[in-house]
Amino acid sequence: MEPLILDGKKVADDIKERLQTRVGELKNQGISPCLATILVGDDPSSETYVKMKGNACERLGILSKRIHLPKETTTEELLDTIYQLNQDSTVHGILLQHPVPSHIDERAAFESIAIEKDVDGVTSLGFGQTTFGFGDFPSCTPAAIIEIINYYNVELEGKHAVVIGRSPILGKPVSMMLLNRNATVTTCHSYTENLPEMIKSADIVVAAVGKPNFIKGEWLKEGAVVLDAGYNKGNIGDVEYETCFEKASAITPVPGGVGPVTISMLLKQTVDSAEKMGVSVK
Ligand code: NAP
To answer: Which annotated residues bind NADP(+) (predicted)?
Structure first.
């Protein structure tokens, strides 16, 4: 039997439709939700990602304050820009596009984002809150994966979820979010021995490796649910789609899976923040 396609575009459209009403209500109160994006340098992929996020905001009536800093920007200058945005009551969310040029202390920059504006979920405080299970703004890609799981009623309780990847913005937080939803979670990484065997025992597989076509169909248990967060050059996921399609009971495509939902979660968390702050922009 063919697997259920977990259609991220459908999930994203559903989120955006609900957001439209909320943005309209905020505007009636004189509040314009606003996301500030900071791009440092001229990496073409980063430029594209920031542009996509800004455009997605504007399509929904969310203001997009786009800050583009030169590649020579120092850590201090970047921290100063973030500090000013933290103080600016017309800004409800701050997104610093990763990666920044290597001479900048990226962690220090992320940490300087005020927690109430950390709508991209990049601070260690935000991660701690997500782990404890009470944070407002989890990292957007993990939040998107949970959103897809909820939308399609994928059962988590007592199920074995295997996450491949342990990055601070993806593998680790999604592991914690699955654990908080009563899955039994194994987090794998580049030192994991017998990865195919680990994956063979998974009811749910989350791929967050950053390597095209890395997860093979023959590694899957029959009927596993596969969520592919990977996004590699040429629109290729971390999962070998054709072979995994044969074994999975449900699978996210790339593109059109986790990606569009990630952007919608960013928009949602910006609107959440604007509602919480309730600061007026006329
Ligand atoms: P990352 O920081 O490079 O982390 C990759 C993780 O994969 C690391 O934990 C690494 O282990 C692990 N890994 C690498 N090789 C492995 C192997 N052979 N076996 C097992 N684990 C291995 O990447 P990321 O930022 O988390 O992103 C992962 C993927 O998600 C990328 O394709 C990225 O483009 C995509 N992504 C998509 C979205 C979206 O909106 N859809 C957002 C963010 C990222 P170690 O820790 O041991 O090095």
So the answer is: 165-167
Q: Give catalytic status of residue 87 as yes or no.
A: no
Q: How far apart are CA 238 and CA 258, in angstroms?
A: 12
Which one of the listed residues 118, 120, 203, 272 is annotated catalytic? 120
Q: Is the full-model pTM beyond 0.90?
A: yes
CA dihedral 35, 36, 40, 44 (to 10 degrees): 40
Q: Residue 261 corresponds to which tokens in the numbers above?
A: 């939902």
Structure tokens at 253: 């495509």
Domains in the chain, CATH or no CATH each? 29-114 (3.40.50.10860), 140-258 (3.40.50.720)
Taking only the tens place, the pLDDT of each residue in 140-156 is 999 999 999 999 999 99
> Which pLDDT tens digit goes with each residue over 187-198?
999 999 999 999
DSSP three-state, residue 225: strand
Contact partners, residue 120, CB within 8 Å, separation at least 6: 93, 94, 95, 96, 137, 139, 140, 266, 269
Indicate if ligand 1 lies below 6 Å from the C-beta of 79: no
Query: DSSP labels for 190-204?
Result: TT-SSHHHHHHT-SE
CB-ligand 1 contact for 210 (6 Å cutoff): yes
Backbone angles phi, psi at 34, to 5 degrees: -140, 125
User: Ligand 1 centre and the CA of 230: distance in Å?
Assistant: 7
SS3 151: helix
Ligand 1 within 6 A of CB of 174: no
